[in-house]
Specification:
The protein is of the alpha/beta class. The protein has 5 domains: 4-216, no CATH class; 226-321; 377-540; 544-613; 653-694. The chain is built from 25 helices and 23 strands. The strands form 6 sheets. A 6-stranded mixed sheet has the order 1-4-5-6-2-3, with helices on both faces. The chain has a 6-stranded antiparallel sheet with strand order 9-8-7-12-11-10. Helix 4 packs antiparallel against helix 8 (193-221), helix 8 packs across helix 22 (588-603) and helix 20 (550-565) packs across helix 22. It is globular.
Amino acid sequence: MGTLTLSASPLLWEQFLVGALDGEAGLRPELRSILPRWQRSRSLGAPSTGQPDEGPSVGSLALVERRARLEPVWHELGGMLEMLSAAPLPSGRVALLADREGVILATRSSGGDFTHHADYVRLVEGACWDETSRGTNAIGTALAESSAVAVVGPAHYAQRHHGLVCYAAPVHDPFGELVAVLDVTGPAGAADPLVLVAVASVAHAAEARLREVAWARVAAAARGGLESRLSREEGPVLVVEPMGRVSRFNAAARALLGGQGPMEVEAALGVSWRVLTDAALRGVALETRLASQGPAWRIHAEAVGTGDGRSALAVLVRLESSGVRSLGMTPGRADSRPVVAEPSSEGRAPRTLSRDLWGADTVVPPGPWAALKGNDPQHRATLREAERFAPTSLPVLLLSETGTGKELLARALHAASAVATGPFVAVNCGALSPALLESELFGHAPGAFTGARVGGAEGKLAAADGGTLFLDELAEMPPALQVLLLRVLEDGAYSRVGESRVRRSRFRLVGATCRDLDAAVRNGTFRSDLYFRLQGAVLRLPPLRERNDLPELAHALLRRLSEEEGLATPSISAAALTRLAAHPWPGNVRELKTVLRLALVRAGGAPVLDVDALPSGLGSPLSPGAQGEPRPAAPPASIPPSQPSAGAAAAGPLRELEARAIQEALALSGGNVAQAARRLGIARSTLYRMAERFGITLPSRA
């Protein structure tokens, strides 16, 4: 992903408005970047003055619908937005998530005086910031050019926005389609080029996470194996991912292309990603020359994990010398015209690779537990317990904090189960409204409600038949749906929304939540009969702050991140490891991954990643101890993962320290939750979750 920084003076902007700069772009270097963007804004009819209520806005219902369109990526993008807003950036900024049409779907403020100005210029949910509405601005220009963009002060087309500095980066789905934009905006006087690096890095992390999830979904439903194809084929074979990144190749392809690290397919084969996917989806072969005077090679492309029939999650490329005839190819076809590619002789769909949370490539199956890395005793004990339960048909309940790897564990349980050949279907119960969640789970009949699909929808229960259904954020499921789910678990019977016909689905259920289900049962938000029905096996992955293998995880993750960027892997200094160990890690391993990605960028290729490459606020204790010392990185005692009570896991000196720190921050902030969260150095949503876990009453989120 390229980056672009646009800046200009007020004088240049005024000269542009009166037409004095027309035709000057080729003569004045300072105009080469900004003038074409201003001219595009003018041709779109964007207002050059700007008003507080300028541009179209969408209502609350339309906003819900737009968020629903981003499902299933909404959960991942929402987590990245939380991470971006909680990053140690200067105060007085707002983090935004906009859809592919420039409509802001969610905002997170760092507080300060800028909050009022953000409302004034319509940096609010529902406002549209495409270039047609606002002219040159980071969100709209990032959408228009599919590039990370910084727009500083008067470089904004609308005069009302000259006091802003905006940093935005697009997010593409696993098929290469632009789906959203992440943005950080603040006062122009606080411009900092490192913020653009941070935003672009978080957007890159979001794309990587979406690819991981998509790869794992394909792996659950497919057969065969890309790994076996790569090793079995004698000729050159490679795997290409959006937007043309060559992710894997066998020895023959490595020798032919002369590459060791990451490469782009257009540079390697002279064929763009779009042309390659089109050939794969249409079933035609292509021809290329790897050198101007070299022999011609025929490209046979197979789509892996097709989306809407117009895109693919990856393409398996097999290269064949044009002088060699292979099984199924038409004799004598050595010209450059496309020929119809024959189906794979194996007759099976390829098993794909999934990338675990720490970046290791793992074939699923076999070896499903290898994806959950680490040598912490609690962590390994949980995996041993999971391995015992995996072959059974018992439901499994995962009670762990966010970012610890619950979905990875769920996928490993599926891969080691008796239904491993069936599908793995994941549903996030907290990402959808009750009505949408019911339709997503149970499906709906044609015309069941306004906006229902013409042919109806089968739903996730039908999709999971014969496999595993993973319900993430299970505690967020509304009571009415809990009753329906209980019936399905009893006899497999259910009906689609708007339909009386009884259907059946048999699946292995894995549920997960970061909430205290014992407390939810006591206060009536979670049904006790469903809770007892789910308690076949209870597993807990320890949070990162309670693990003793953080250095190992950090080194492994940094090695993988360096490989992705084509960089030499730096070592981590003892001081940096000490700083990492002192951090409370509310986002757990997912947060560690983002921190190390940012640190790798800031290190600038240095052989040792030192403290100065880490975010400045990292390692600040959640609360000082009695003597003013930071709290220890590891707890004094470990809690066995097989204990049934989630409340018991919250006991111990470390948790007491956290609860006391929250109470002290609230007292010092006069009960203001946002101020208390800033004092603690955590996101407001994290503070709500921790307070609920410790039984601390907070003011309503409203």
